[in-house]
Automatic annotation (TrEMBL), chain A:
Protein HGH1 N-terminal domain residues: 96-269
Matches recorded under Pfam families: DUF383 (PF04063), DUF384 (PF04064)
Record-given protein name: Protein HGH1 homolog
Organism: Lithocarpus litseifolius
Domain Protein HGH1 C-terminal: 275-327
InterPro entries xref list: ARM-like (IPR011989), ARM-type_fold (IPR016024), Hgh1 (IPR039717), Protein_HGH1_C (IPR007206), Protein_HGH1_N (IPR007205)
Taxonomic lineage from the root: Eukaryota, Viridiplantae, Streptophyta, Embryophyta, Tracheophyta
Family indicated by similarity: Belongs to the HGH1 family.
From TrEMBL, chain B:
Alphabetized InterPro entries for the sequence: Csn1/TTC4_wheel, TPR-like_helical_dom_sf, TPR_rpt
Molecular function via GO: Hsp70 protein binding; Hsp90 protein binding
Record flagged with keyword Repeat: yes
Name of the protein: Cns1/TTC4 wheel domain-containing protein
Keyword Metal-binding: no
Biological source species: Lithocarpus litseifolius
Key words of the record: Repeat, TPR repeat
Similarity field: Belongs to the TTC4 family.
Biological process (GO), any one: protein folding
């Protein structure tokens, strides 16, 4: 004898559109509460496939279905089941169907799914040699072509997906691959006014810097974009004088010669400082950092800093540079 | 004089051998002795055959084993030398000559292996360099001014960053200067500053100018750098590898493994030198890598930049495209 919940779940697959519409709205409501989630979780094997089928339907059912799935995917076990049943592929297919209208929700669901290693692997398409990295490339392209200017910015959350996946080496390698140029595109989003996008960029760069030991060249060769993204947040708010900016490359020097909005998010600041630390652990990284007058920028930025965690991060880089000052500092001093 | 007697000796031994009336051990001695004479005559192959025959007839014939080893040594059959020596030493462990030979072999093998290792290291190094160049999308063309550049080549450091030797040419007088190690992430300004510094303020107003710069036009502020755009043909991958191997342990290597798809000839990029080549100014605040990766820059072996002074009368002629580097 089916209980009410089972009946409701059954209605998700009803041939009548009015019934499915009513059912999915109710299910979506359930996913909003802790208890509701727990109850539905028992029937995961039916609920999840039913909801995913509805994603392909008209907006009146696909939207609540997507909302329900976003909520469900916050639970680790449910997320795992979703990845196992190929939810990443389904999401990507619907995401790129024109007029799908639920892009933002699908991206949010992917954020949750990529909290799991299996989700990351699924998104990277590591199994499939030919398609490897295709999903990621599509997401990056959408991320970079859209902006926070539009009212809803559907691809805003790709920022968080990138941070999630870059926890894995395979993703970092993909992002750093100079032939695909993904990191270069992503870094440009740093100028965005959306805090989520900014955080996503700094988090992703920081994660990618864990490859500095083996792939330093892929980081340094986009230094034109990399250094401004890493140094502007920790350059303080003062306008730099000519003596300092003359030693910097143009894009950095000109940005620091004018009035600017300082970055106030300590999380971003700590992340970029960690990224700088990872780069300057390497000989060539330190050399490049000195050559753009990086240490001077950190010096000035540190003067105005109040947040203890950020200060600690500055100090960590500082002592690394001092310990290794040997040749670099003397060659920098020579050119004064 | 002695040699004539040797061939007589060979004849005698041969006749004795052909009589086939002696015991195996006695035959063995005959073969062994004929081997000895062949060695003296320099007939190493025949000596080896005789010695081997002697060994077949009497495996404990240490003299034969020694002579087989010596013959093999002259034929550069290092493995055989070792094995004959070892067999001989089994029967006569204190044999000084065999021991000496064995040591010599070990030494030779070591030297050979070291040389092979050097060659394969050189080839691997050149391949890494070629990959690094390819990954960066750089175009390398035929080297020019080799009388000035010699065998200098780019290098890769531990962090996979490229360091280039860079040639600076003062176009007005075709005098030259070298930057031995220009790291691709360095800016031009840093190196230009260092040149001024190391030549005790060559570019300063109070110091003597370059010997040919009578009017002191070439100061730090007045100089500009240019590269020649679109001149020449890109090297194919195998030609590039060969160029990178010049002057290394592997410069003689005949064939290098190159991917099939890379084996095609390089593309012809635009105009060749002298036919209205374009001069492109180099922004001082840019890094070497930024400039090298410009699509119209075909690096002539190693990067060459032309130095001119805004203050010199030569400047107008240069900028108007009327000057061409001498061949």
């Amino acid at each position: 004898m089916a209980n009410e919940l089972e009946e409701l779940i059954g209605f998700l697959s009803s041939p009548s559109p009015q019934i499915t519409k009513a059912a999915v709205d109710i299910v979506r409501g359930f996913t909003g509460s802790e208890d509701g989630l727990k109850s539905l979780a028992h029937y995961a094997n039916i609920v999840l496939p039913s909801l995913s089928r509805l994603l392909a339907g008209p907006k009146e059912v696909s939207e609540p279905a997507a909302e329900a799935l976003v909520n469900l995917s916050q639970d680790t076990d449910l997320a795992r089941k979703m990845v196992e049943m190929g939810m990443v592929k389904i999401a990507m297919e619907i995401l790129y169907k024109p007029e799908s209208g639920i892009s933002k929700l699908l991206v949010m669901m992917l954020v949750n799914l990529t909290q799991l290693d299996a989700g990351i692997a699924s998104l990277l398409q590591t199994e499939d040699e030919k398609m490897n990295g295709l999903y990621v490339m599509k997401l990056v392209r959408s991320f970079c072509r859209s902006s926070s200017e539009t009212s809803d910015d559907p691809f805003e959350h790709v920022a968080s997906i990138l941070v999630n996946i870059s926890k894995q080496e395979a993703a970092r390698k993909l992002l750093l691959d100079p032939k695909r140029g993904l990191l270069k595109q992503i870094i440009r989003q740093f100028d965005s006014s959306s805090p989520l996008r900014k955080k996503g960029v700094s988090g992703t760069i920081r994660n990618c810097c864990f490859e500095a030991e083996s792939q330093l060249q892929n980081l340094l060769l986009i230094s034109e974009f990399l250094w401004p993204a890493l140094l502007l947040p920790v350059a303080g708010k003062k306008i730099y004088n000519e003596k300092d900016t003359s030693k910097m490359p143009l894009e950095l020097g000109s940005a620091l010669s004018i009035e600017r909005e300082p970055v106030t998010d300590p999380e971003i600041q700590v992340q970029v400082l960690e990224a700088i630390y990872l780069i300057t652990l390497q000989d060539a990284g330190r050399r490049a950092f000195w050559s753009v007058n990086g240490p001077r920028i950190l010096q000035v930025g540190y003067e105005d800093e109040q947040d203890p965690k950020v200060m600690e991060a500055y100090e960590r880089v500082g002592s690394l540079l001092v310990d290794n000052s040997g040749t670099e500092e003397s060659s920098a001093e020579k050119s004064i | 004089m002695g040699k004539k007697h040797y061939s007589d000796a060979i004849d005698c031994y041969t006749r004795a051998i052909n009589q086939k009336v002696l015991s195996d051990s006695e035959q063995s001695i005959l073969f062994s002795n004929r081997a000895h004479v062949n060695l003296l005559l320099g007939n190493y192959r025949r000596a080896l055959m005789d010695a081997e025959e002697a060994i077949k007839l009497c495996p404990t014939n240490v003299k034969a084993l020694y002579r087989a080893a010596k013959a093999s040594l002259s034929l550069n059959l290092l493995v055989e030398v070792k094995s004959f020596c070892e067999k001989g030493l089994e029967h006569d462990p204190n044999n000084k000559e065999l021991k000496k030979l064995a040591e010599e072999i070990d030494l030779r093998r070591l030297e050979h292996e070291q040389r092979e290792a050097q060659v394969s290291r050189a080839v691997a190094g050149a391949k890494d360099l070629a990959s690094a160049i390819e990954d960066r999308g750089l175009k390398i063309g035929k080297a020019v001014f080799q009388e000035l550049t010699g065998l200098r080549k780019p290098t890769l450091d531990n962090n996979n960053i490229l360091h280039w030797p860079v040639l600076l040419l003062y176009a007005e007088v075709m005098s030259s200067d070298f930057i031995e190690d220009f790291c691709e992430t360095d800016m031009f300004s840093a190196h230009l500053d260092m040149i001024s510094f190391s030549l005790s303020n060559m570019f300063s107003d109070t110091c003597p100018p370059l010997p040919w710069d009578k009017e002191n036009n070439y100061t730090r502020e007045s100089i500009e750098l240019y590269y020649e755009a679109g001149s020449g043909v890109c090297l194919s991958k195998s030609k590039l590898l060969r160029y990178l191997l010049e002057g290394t342990a592997a410069s003689h290597v005949e064939s290098i493994d190159v991917d099939e798809k890379d084996a095609t000839e390089g593309l012809n990029h635009g105009i060749s030198a002298g036919e209205g080549s374009k001069w492109v100014k180099v922004g001082e605040k840019r890094t070497l890598h930024d400039i090298l990766k410009e699509p119209n820059f075909i690096i002539p072996g190693i990067p060459v930049f032309y130095v001119v002074s805004k203050r010199s009368s030569f400047y107008k002629e240069f900028k108007a495209g009327k000057w061409v580097p001498p061949p």
